[in-house]
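Recap slide: Putative localization factor protein PodJ, sequence and predicted structure.
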Amino acid sequence: MIGPQTANAIREYQRSEGLAVTGTVTPELIERLNTGASRGRG
């Protein structure tokens, strides 16, 4: 379960990455996180 602080952090990340701002984990969010991790970000 995602709490309010986690949802806020997700929304901020989505906003900063130009993704749809949902506050939930989406396939696009996971893809972006994986891409960032493989590039040494995150």
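Helices lie at 4-17, 27-38.
The chain has two helices and no strands.
(End of recap.)
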